[in-house]
Write a structure and sequence with these properties.
With 103 residues, this protein is mainly alpha-helical. α2 runs antiparallel to α3. The protein is elongated. It is built from three helices and no strands.
Length: 103
C-alpha cells in the first residue's frame, strides 16, 4: 500500500486563504515567521486577482506574538558556601581566620 504524499505548495489553493485560517496560527516558536510568509502569499494572491483587497487587509492585520527570550548562556547553580570556616570538610584547606576551630 502506498502512503499518500503531503501536499506541496503548488497543490494548496492559496486564493482560498482567508482571515480565520491566518488567525488560527499560534505556534509560539515560529508564529511570526509563518505569519510573515502568509502575509506575503496573500499579497501576491491579491495582485494576481485571486484574493480581494478586503480579505487581504484582514489577513495583513493579524498581529504577531510578542514573547521573551532567556538570556544567552546557561544558568549554573553555585553550591552554598559553608556557614562557618569550621564547617568545611577536614580535607579542605585551613580556615581563613586566625582563630582556632576547636570545639
Amino acid at each position: 500500500m502506498i502512503a499518500p504524499r503531503a501536499p506541496s505548495a503548488y497543490d494548496i489553493p492559496w486564493g482560498a486563504l482567508r482571515y480565520p485560517h491566518v488567525a488560527a496560527i499560534r505556534a509560539p516558536a515560529t508564529v511570526n515567521k509563518v505569519l510573515s510568509a502568509l502575509r506575503g502569499v496573500a499579497r501576491e494572491a491579491m495582485r494576481l486577482g485571486q484574493l480581494d483587497a478586503g480579505e487581504y487587509t484582514k489577513i495583513a492585520d493579524v498581529e504577531g506574538l510578542r514573547g521573551t527570550r532567556l538570556p544567552a548562556g546557561r544558568h549554573v547553580e553555585m553550591p552554598e558556601p559553608p556557614s562557618s570556616p569550621c564547617s568545611a570538610s577536614p580535607a579542605s584547606a585551613a580556615p581563613s581566620s586566625p582563630r582556632s576551630c576547636t570545639t
